[in-house]
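hiii so um. not sure if this is the right channel but i have a protein structure encoded as tokens and i wanna go backwards to a sequence. like what aa goes where. can anyone help
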């Protein structure tokens, strides 16, 4: 023999023994518990021109996606409103929102997927920020300024003029 096992069927290299899987148990004994610590992230989100008219809606959308996926928002602010270098989804201008949040690593995929599937978010970039402390991230908070600007934009939007009342019908001339 050359050191290889000859199986029950006489095939060289195949062991006749089967490895049995351990029975599933409900206790935690013997299982490795992996914890997913919260990690700080920075997200840059690009919204189209329609977000300029409904900035409050864009902010609420970001908050909804993050909180629904278990993230804790540290800071949220408008970074810029500027023309794009090239058109994205027929949009020539965009609004950039910058947010800092903390989430577990297993939830990051769901957050990215939600932003990618969103019709209002044109582009998103999420990176891990180990170089900033929580105080530095909170210092960049601008949600109050963002809400004030959203209210000002909503107030400055022209409201449709009421339709003119029809003129009274003239009495027939006899």
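sure thing!! here u go:
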């Amino acid at each position: 023999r050359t050191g290889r096992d000859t199986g029950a069927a006489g095939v060289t290299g195949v062991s006749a023994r089967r490895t049995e899987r351990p029975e599933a148990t409900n206790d935690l004994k013997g299982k490795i518990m992996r914890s997913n610590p919260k990690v700080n992230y920075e997200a840059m989100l690009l919204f189209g021109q329609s977000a300029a008219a409904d900035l409050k809606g864009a902010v609420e959308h970001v908050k909804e996606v993050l909180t629904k996926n278990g993230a804790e928002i540290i800071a949220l602010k408008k970074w810029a409103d500027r023309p794009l270098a090239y058109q994205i989804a027929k949009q020539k201008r965009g609004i950039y929102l910058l947010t800092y949040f903390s989430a577990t690593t297993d939830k990051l995929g769901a957050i990215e997927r939600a932003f990618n599937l969103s019709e209002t978010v044109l582009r998103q970039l999420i990176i891990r920020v180990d170089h900033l402390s929580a105080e530095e991230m909170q210092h960049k908070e601008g949600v109050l300024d963002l809400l004030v600007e959203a209210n000002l934009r909503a107030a400055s939007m022209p409201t449709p003029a009421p339709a003119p009342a029809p003129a009274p019908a003239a009495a027939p001339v006899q």
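oh and Strands lie at 38-47, 72-88, 91-104, 121-128.
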